[in-house]
Amino acid sequence: MKRILFVILSAMLLASCVIEKTQQPAPVTPVEPKKKQEPPVKPSEKVPQPPKVQSINWNSVVQPLVEQMVEANGVEAGKVLLVDSVKNNTNGSLRTLKATDAITDAISNKQVFQVVPKSQVYTARQALGLSSEDSLGLRSKSIGLARYLNADYVLYTAISSHNGQRDIEMQLLLVKTGEILWSGRGDVN
Length: 189
Fold this sequence. Notes:
It comes from Xenorhabdus khoisanae. By secondary structure, this protein is an alpha/beta fold. 34% of the residues lie in helices and 20% in strands. It contains five helices and six strands; from the N terminus they run H-H-E-E-H-E-H-H-E-E-E. 23% of the residues are buried.
């Protein structure tokens, strides 16, 4: 016990000692920066072309599916519907925002559902900590967002590619149970 106390006191004493030693600052010699000569710019061979984004008439793609959906069994008119953003499960570049807008417009024109406005969806995404660019990807996240917005249905849409052919698949989900009330598939030309 005495040894430990002696070691601790010695350490404290040594730690409190200050050695004063004046040290001369290191000499500073200014150096002028050398001017680098840029290598001559050679014209590049060819600038690669960006991938061409195909123009798709989304209205003609989604219209038949929306007509099937509003006539499906078990679908009640006047209920609140959340149109989830379209998921791009292809390797290519698609304008999914335009596809989502086309689906929303087609459903609004049928006047069967009360579609949740984009501004409400945006606010709800912020409240839940989801970025506006986040395509929810999972049906469970879509249903969670729909529950937050007090929607009765959620429309989940994904575009996939098989053997060079792109397909669009839509599913109308009942928010309370997650049950798929209607499912439809179409070609994306």
